[in-house]
Amino acid sequence: MHSVGQKNQMETTMNYLETFKRARALLVSLAFGLVAAAAAAGPWPERPIKIVVSSAAGGGPDILARQIAQKLSSAVGQPVIVENKIGANGIIAVSEVARSAPDGYTLLYTGASSTALNQALRTDLPFDVQRDLQPVTQIGVGANYLVVAADMPIADMDQFVRYAKARPQELAYASWGVGSPGHLTMAAIENQAGIQLRHIPYKSIPQMLQDLQAGTVKVAVVDPVSSLPFIRSGSIKVVSAIGTVKGPLLPEVRTMNEQGYRFDANGWHGVFVAARTPEAIVVRLNHEINAILKDADMRARLTQLNIGSSTPTSPSDFQKILQSDIQFWSQVVTTNHIAAN
């Protein structure tokens, strides 16, 4: 006969063995489930990939996205289709990809304006950039320009600041709309330099450039591509490149940082996928697209669009850039009480 103590010890041992068996059965079941899920998913890619572009066909972003699509198709052995989804400053395109299946078959090609600036500016977005998108890689970095009319006695940032301080609220600047990168950029410059200008929002960049050339408006923030003919002809003057990089077609134009006015946010293009896309697919896309960016013809295309080639970025590197830009622009929006909803 067993004593009470021995009986209790045997029961405890049996309970441990039973618990161990159940745990082992659960682990085996989970392992088979993971294997089955991986088998069901299959190798990537098994079908065509779509790149959603947030701008119109024929523009700079579209041109770059199509060149990437062609080379990516060769690299992965599947067709890569470009689909333009324009409207609402990129919100339509970003929304589609944010809601897409996280399987690596729907990519987003867009810029800082549609992601970081929108996230900082708007409270009515149907998505959260940091929650719903997974950055893949940055494509290129470009500088917008602070420009003035040709008859303005201004050639650099110091002269611009002195001129504006002597005429508070008298000097007006143009941008391509309330909440546009030009609007937020000038607000940031005003804060840093301690100047006050009146904002004149335009509905289109061509009209803004025409009025700047005619002297109807004296100051503007302009994009690095459509402004080039006006700058090269001398019909408008460049004061500074905005950001930390120079446009490759205007390397002589100094950045704000070089002139003693700190401005760390850049314009950029980038590729994203839906959040929760498997890490292996994100890493593969990052590897393939970064390899494409090293091609001589790709670098030449970026130069033609006055966009600097960015250092190859990892998904985590690009995520940090996105977070930093959202923080930068959020502070500008809050400080200046800017709303675009």
Folded structure, characterized:
The chain has 12 helices and 11 strands. The chain has 341 residues and is α/β, with parallel strands linked by helices. It folds into 2 domains: 49-142 and 266-336, Bordetella uptake gene, domain 1 (D-Maltodextrin-Binding Protein, domain 2, 3-Layer(aba) Sandwich); 144-259, D-Maltodextrin-Binding Protein, domain 2, CATH 3.40.190.10. The strands form 2 sheets. The protein has a 6-stranded mixed sheet with strand order 2-1-3-10-4-11, with helices on both faces. Strands 7-6-8-5-9 form a 5-stranded mixed sheet. Helix 2 links the parallel strand 1 and strand 2 (80-84). Helix 2 crosses helix 10 (279-293), helix 4 (113-121) crosses helix 12 and helix 7 (181-193) crosses helix 12. The chain is globular, with a radius of gyration of 27 Å. Residues 1-8 and 25-41 have low confidence and may be disordered.
